[in-house]
Write a structure and sequence with these properties.
- By secondary structure, the protein is mainly α.
- It has a single domain, classed as MetI-like fold, CATH 1.10.3720.
- It is 77% helix and 0% strand.
Length: 291
Amino acid sequence: MRRLRKHNETSPLVFVIWGYIIWSLVPVIIAVVYSFNDGRSRTVWQGFSLRWWFTDPYASIFHNAETRNAIVNSLVLAIATLLVVTPLGMMLAIGAQRIRGRGARLVQGLTAAPLITPEIVVGAALLITFTRLFTAIPLGFAAQLLGNVTFSLSSVVVIVRARLVSIGASFEEAARDLGATRLQALRYVLLPMLWPSVMASLVVVFATVIDDFVITSFLSAGVSSETVPLRIYSSVKGGATPALNALATLLVLASFFVLIIGLFGLSAWRKQQGERGGLRAALADVTQMDN
């Protein structure tokens, strides 16, 4: 009776979950399917083909020079941003977490402020900053990189800080009691335990930057710094073909690819040491190093 009652209580939630999944995935699936359409229509199916991916010598995404340039720009911008943002965000999160006193909450709140600031406001403010104040930084890749770093940094700070709160200070204190210095406790105890938040940060930052439109558009310098979202937007205005669907599909696949890498990295970390095993190994290393 209890199992039947629980099943009846949770069944509406199951319908809600599946309804949300279907509602969010069906448009994406339709867009992906029509990227393999043989004709130029994006609404009428005319047969399966790889025309808009490879075979068309002019209009396919891998034969069109402007499209290839947009793909390369998006990948380079996303990878460069996550390489800068992840270590910087970790340092800011650790520093903000260790601040004590009256200003602690203020500092912690300010580090997360860009996360709740409308992106269009950030983009417009950055455009004014680079064109009026820091004129030595040209619009294009450099400005886009700094803009995405500015906007994405708060995401890493929030993710890492959440992990720091769950870890607590007892592990570092135990390492210090065993004779480790503050730097050794940070390197051999805390940083390995932050690995899940690092992987989550990499996935979030990559997915945010590679499909960013607002900031990248504000700080663009033309075709040379055009990214995939900008290319899709310009293609929609100029009469789109299924090549647009193929380009959007490539964007989705890139995000899923990074997500899968993050999941594999997290799974490998758990299998190798786990939370408790990793802590014991780290403390043992510190003890042996002191001896």
